[in-house]
TrEMBL record:
InterPro entries: FTHF_cligase-like_sf (IPR024185), LUD_dom (IPR003741), NagB/RpiA_transferase-like (IPR037171). It comes from Stieleria bergensis. This is Lactate utilization protein C. It comes from the Bacteria. Transmembrane segments: none annotated. Residues 108-208 form the LUD domain. SUPFAM superfamilies: NagB/RpiA/CoA transferase-like.
Length: 208
């Protein structure tokens, strides 16, 4: 890069930084959030059944199990799990993986990951979503780069609606967290539905 080009880049970067700094320090008046009457939001008599129904509607599959040993038994019946070569498990006490993500520095090394076994903090019945706390993940990309995803969550950890869900989020430290419901899908191109475009091709949820 010659001196003139370098000067132009430096000036351009400085100008962008000045604009961003000004935006960050400018107070903005925003309207207050509406008050929600929680007595009027939806509740379900059987939230587990509703969760399973909504998860199936978006292409996922829920398994209600009474013993943690059943998780591995069910997974072993799935062809793409039996044939998997690279599995990361954040819950080795339930399902053992064969790849230690803690030992991987570069997330790009996970590009050929077959399965991620993750811990869910709680479920949302109205939309079949599960909240994942980022502190349980050595790399946040584990949720999105694996071909297949399994989430294990406690049966008692469920809310009926997203208002209750956001109240629960406040208990976590906020480093990173995400609602997961799947599998990933898109139909933007020629209105042809593609699974796994932006994440897992199939989601299995084990409710213990």
């Amino acid at each position: 890069m010659n001196t003139n080009n370098q000067a132009e880049v430096t000036a351009d970067t400085s100008a962008k930084r000045a604009v961003m700094d000004r935006l960050r320090t400018t107070p903005i008046d925003v309207p207050a959030l509406p008050e929600i009457d929680l007595d009027r939001v939806i509740e379900f008599e059987d939230p587990i059944a509703k969760f399973s129904e909504m998860l199936a509607l978006v292409g996922g599959q829920a398994h209600v199990v009474d013993d943690i040993a059943e998780v591995k038994t069910i997974l072993d019946q799935i062809d793409v799990y039996r044939d998997a070569r690279r599995v990361v498990s954040n819950m080795p006490e339930i399902v053992e993986g064969n790849l230690d993500a803690q030992m991987i520095d570069d997330p790009h090394a996970l590009a050929t990951l077959d399965w991620t076994i993750a811990k869910g903090e709680f479920m949302v019945a109205e939309n079949g979503a599960i909240w994942i706390d980022g502190n349980t993940l050595p790399h946040r990309v584990l949720l999105f780069i694996a071909q297949y995803l399994a989430i294990v969550v406690d049966r008692s950890a469920i809310v009926s609606n997203m208002h209750q869900a956001y109240d629960r989020i406040d208990r976590f430290d906020g480093r990173f967290g995400v609602f997961v419901s799947g599998p990933s899908k898109t139909a933007d191109i020629e209105q042809s539905l593609v699974l796994g475009a932006h994440g897992c091709r199939k989601l299995q949820v084990f409710i213990i």
